[in-house]
Specification:
alpha+beta; Thiol Ester Dehydrase, Chain A; 6-stranded antiparallel beta sheet; about 25% helix
């Protein structure tokens, strides 16, 4: 195990439980939903057919849950936050996946969303610091979030 990983782990661990920030609002337009449908080949009518979607309980089209999930990098701005010393000696950072993803509420077309980023868990894994961020995507004007996801990142130190 590298000294740099141990030092970084101590700094990350000290910040465990802190909110890293709240991103900017982003509108989910029908154009973006349609583009996502084209890329993923998921053209279910509740996403892409506004006329048919009027007859659903939503009353309009809704964004794919995976579209909202895929926007986490943008919604969190992907910027390192906190003490820059946490990153000293880093060789690379990798997206390690998700422990848990829940699509809590549908995101109706035209809604604005933003992400809350909580540093929820920090672990030392050999020469890597594994960071779990609990991402909560808020829908403007709604009581319940669009999604909550535990996102894992590994920071590998030389």
């Amino acid at each position: 195990m590298s000294d740099k990983a141990e030092k970084a782990f101590a700094l990350w661990k000290a910040a465990e439980g802190e909110e890293k920030g709240v991103g900017a609002w982003m509108e989910l337009t029908q154009e973006r939903i349609d583009q996502f449908a084209d890329v993923t080949e998921d053209h279910q009518f509740i996403h892409v057919d506004p006329e048919r979607a009027k007859a659903t309980p939503f009353g309009t089209t809704i964004a794919h849950g995976f579209l909202t999930l895929s926007l986490l990098t943008h919604l969190s701005k992907g910027e390192p936050k906190g003490d820059p010393a946490r990153y000293e000696g880093i060789a690379m950072g990798i997206n390690y996946g998700f422990d848990k993803v829940r699509f809590v509420s549908p995101v109706k077309v035209g809604s604005r969303v933003r992400a809350h980023d909580l540093l929820s868990k920090v672990e030392l894994k050999g020469n890597a610091v594994q960071v779990t961020r609990t991402m909560t995507v808020e829908i403007e004007g709604e009581e319940r979030p669009a999604l909550v996801a535990d996102w894992l990142t590994r920071l590998v130190f030389a």
